[in-house]
Amino acid sequence: MTKPSRNSLRIQFLRILRPWHRRLGLASALFILVLTLTGVAINHSDDFGLDKTGVTQAWLLDYYGIAAPKHVAKFGVSPSALYITDNLLWQNQQMMLEAADTLISAARTSNMIIAIDPQQLYLFDKQGQLQETQNRSTGLPSDLLGLAVVDDRVWLNTKSGVYQADEQLIDWQHATLPVGFHSWVSASRETDGAIINLARSANLSWQRVMLDLHSGRLFGHLTIWLWDLFALALLMVSLSGFWIWLKQKPPR
After folding, report:
1. Selection from 80, 72, 187, 77 nearest residue 127 by Cα
2. Most distant CA pair in the chain, distance
3. What is the SS3 assignment for 59?
4. CA angle 77, 147, 110 (to 5 degrees)
5. Distance in angstroms (rounded) separating the CA atoms of residues 216 and 225
6. What is the CA radius of gyration of the chain?
7. Phi and psi dihedrals of 225, rounded to 5?
8. pTM above 0.85, yes or no
9. What is the distance between the alpha carbons of residues 34 and 83, in angstroms, rounded to a whole number?
10. Tens of pLDDT along 178-208?
């Protein structure tokens, strides 16, 4: 029996290697495409606004486990209504504030917007730009329960009683509610589904999704291993391609 020569063995190995080289190349193509597109998106996330654009697709928010806000309230009448979703304050579907605690109430005066959480009061101009934050260190009463605007003057209901602010909202004094006082600012029973979706999307940006997809963490630990296999396949394509080229290179 004739022993196969080294040249014939090399030819047989090349015949076996070529189809595997093509298969690995096709398998790696999707991986390279995803890495390229997500890499470009991440590098230019500021230009594309991905860091400031929230995900609005319900299925993706559900996948990330981002639930709807527990506390949703509407103050006023559309289109100038103010909305509270947990610790977020909204106006015209634009987020005005992310507070440290769940917001209680919001109201308007003739020249400003006011919102409160249990320990702080937030002052905005008419356009919704935050101008000032008051708390106990600035003389604000603690343990706030409610808010009211009577004759363009701001009143606060607290666990220690009722307080009224001066015209500049600097000094707070114990006071008796005025005659004809109806009620503290309360939320409307009507809610807006669009605001609820926006509140959910505020917790997930497209930049985060691109980072998770680029690293393989979007679909959990199994995808990380799959990404590792794709990377190994890409390495094998590179090595096998170099070996095929080296063996088929015409002699000088």
Report:
1. 80
2. 117
3. helix
4. 55
5. 8
6. 31
7. -65, -40
8. no
9. 38
10. 877 878 888 776 667 788 888 898 889 989 9
